[in-house]
Each structure stands twice: as C-alpha cells, then as structure tokens.
Amino acid sequence: MTTMLTVLLGLLLSRLVSIDAQVGVCYGRDGDGLPSQQDVVNLYRRNGITRMRIYDPDQATLRALKGTNIELIIGVPNDALQSLNDQGAANTWVRNNIQNYPDVRFRYIAVGNEVDPNNGNSRYVNFVLPAMRNVQNAINAAGLRNQIKVSTATYTGLLGVSYPPSNGAFRNNVRGFIEPIIRFLAGNNSPMLANIYPYFANPNSNLPYTLFSAPGTVVTDPNNGLRYSNIFDAMLDAHYAAQARLGGGNVQIVVSESGWPSAGGNAATVGNAGTYYRNLIRHVRGTTGTPAKPGRSIETYLFAMFDENRKPGEESEKHFGIFSPDQRPKYQLSFS
C-alpha cells in the first residue's frame, strides 16, 4: 500500500510540474501583415502553445480564444490606467473584458507594463496601484478572486543593484512606487510579473553566459556561495532579493517577457536567438529553478509571437518574433 501511494504521489507531482512548466508566448500586434486574431489562435493551438499574453483587451482576440483552454495574461495598457482609478470604470472594464468571456481562461491581469519613475512612462506612476486595487475589487465582486490574479509587469530597469544577485535592490527613487505594489501582491497571494532580457545585459561580454551555453559556473555570489551558469537566473534572483528587502520575500515572480532578436543589434542573429529560445524553454520547464529558488519550474512567456515592424525604439525591437508574419517558424521550438 505504501509503495502504491508513493507511486501515485509521484505521478501527481509530475503532473503538477508539467502544468506549471508550460511556456507561454506574448502576442503583440504592432506590425504590418500579421495574421487575423483567429489565425493567430489557431497557430498557437497547432504548435501546442497553451499560454498567451496580450497587451490590451482586444475583443477579436478574446472571441477567438473562447473554448480553447489557452490560459491568458490580459493587459491594461498604460494609457488606460488613469481611467481605472475610478471604481466604476474598473467594474465596467472587468465586466466588458472578463465577465463577458466566461469561456476564456484568464490567468492574470497585468495592470500596466514597465511603468517606471525614470523612463517615459513616469507619468503613469501614481495610477498603477489605485488601478490594481480597483480591478482587484471588481474581480472579488465578480467571485473570481481565486481564479484570476491581479498584478503589474515590471522589468530589470527598476533595479539599482543587480550584482551580486543577493544584493539585488530597487533604485532609491523606485522604492516608494514599488513597495506598496509588492505588499499588495503579498496580501492577495498574487505574483509579480517581470520582463527579463539577458540580451540587454551586454551579451558580447560573455555570450555563452547569456545563451545558457556556458560549460559551468561563471559567477559565484560572494555573499552566499551560490553559483550561476547563466545570467537569466542571476537577473531573476536579483529581482527576488530586491522584493525581499521590501516585504515581498514570498511573492512569486512570473517572467512575463523574455526573448532575443534575430537582427538589428549586437549579437542579434538567427543562430543566437534560436539558441536562446531553445535553451530558455528547456531551462524554465525543468525543475532546477534558480540557485536562490531551486527545485521549481519558472513560469515564462517568450517575447514574442511575431516580428513587429512598427515597434518604436532600436531596430532590434522589431525582430523578436518566433514566427514571421506569414506564420512560418523562424526556429525549431518545442512547446509540448
């Protein structure tokens, strides 16, 4: 009997690990010649991609997702945050974009993306937490508290210290913004969403370290002796350390974006991008975790589904897609 229970428990745990280890893909629409929303959802399904992130409540996408069992991160765009500081507006937003789609599997609501006191999104800083609270109130009133978690998407630019990872800390002028958000997440048992890009951490300094292809330890944290063979883990653990300093030691981090461009910048090649995506998928789906958070898979969303030629910024920003707009895969990736 004991042996049978052990076997059953092992099967259950392996099943839970496989569920948590599913890798999602972000679906942006800032490009010309992209497929219709229905064709995009069909492409997700054909490739066994079971999680999606979108950046606004696009109704055609939500209709296409009905009945598919694809789990969704739905975004509140930054320019909508101020309006959701009104509880009535937040109630309407949840009713129109969540409750009206009972056959869509919503996982998280990302209230804002990369809002930062130090960048062009600084004008939204005061609107993020009130919008999160109002959306949470609306979710609670709809009886969805245990099904859908309310969060916001941050990024590594909020950190003032990231090396060694255990010294991770938010910038001084970010703490007043991010600490109440962290405490809100902890109080609601919600994860922090974080966009983590080794590509933007000077990949030419040690390319294998950024591509998960270093043969062994590259960095040892002098504070705790933890050994790092890839910078993705170091960046993620720095985020965890920064959160812990502000009362968020138990707030899980979901990697809401990570990717590598195939053109337009240093080390931006099809070969490097393919290597990064394949190794990232293998790493986060496993149960190695990070040195500071071992023994767990890392919920991660690849950025992005398609190249988006209308994205502003550096040329590389236009080349993060894992598919071309004609739906041809740029890399051989396995999601199942």
Provide a descriptive summary of the structure in words:
- It is a single chain.
- With 336 residues, the chain is of the alpha/beta class.
- The protein is built from 9 helices and 12 strands.
* Quaternary organisation: single chain
Give the helices and strands as they follow along the chain. Answer: HEHEHEHEHEEEHEHEEHEHE
Helix content: 25-40%
Number of strands: 12
Helix-and-strand structural type: alpha/beta
Main sheet characteristics? 8 strands, parallel, barrel
**Contiguous uncertain segments of 5+ residues:** 1-19
Strand content: 15-25%
Shape: globular
Ends: how far apart?
Answer: 33 Å
Q: Please state the average pLDDT score.
A: 93
Strand order of the largest sheet: 1-2-3-4-5-8-11-12
- Rg from Cα: 20 Å
What's the number of helices? 9
Summarize the structure.
With 336 residues, the protein is α/β, with parallel strands linked by helices.
SSE map:
Elements: H1 2-20, E1 24-26, H2 37-46, E2 51-54, H3 59-65, E3 71-76, H4 87-99, E4 105-113, H5 125-141, E5 149-155, E6 159-161, E7 169-170, H6 175-187, E8 192-195, H7 207-210, E9 219-220, E10 227-228, H8 231-244, E11 253-258, H9 270-285, E12 300-302
Parallel strand pairs: 1-2, 1-12, 2-3, 3-4, 4-5, 5-8, 8-11, 11-12
Antiparallel strand pairs: 6-7, 9-10
Keywords:
eight-stranded parallel β-barrel, 9 helices, alpha/beta, disordered N terminus, 34% helix, two-stranded antiparallel sheet, 12 strands, 336 residues, globular
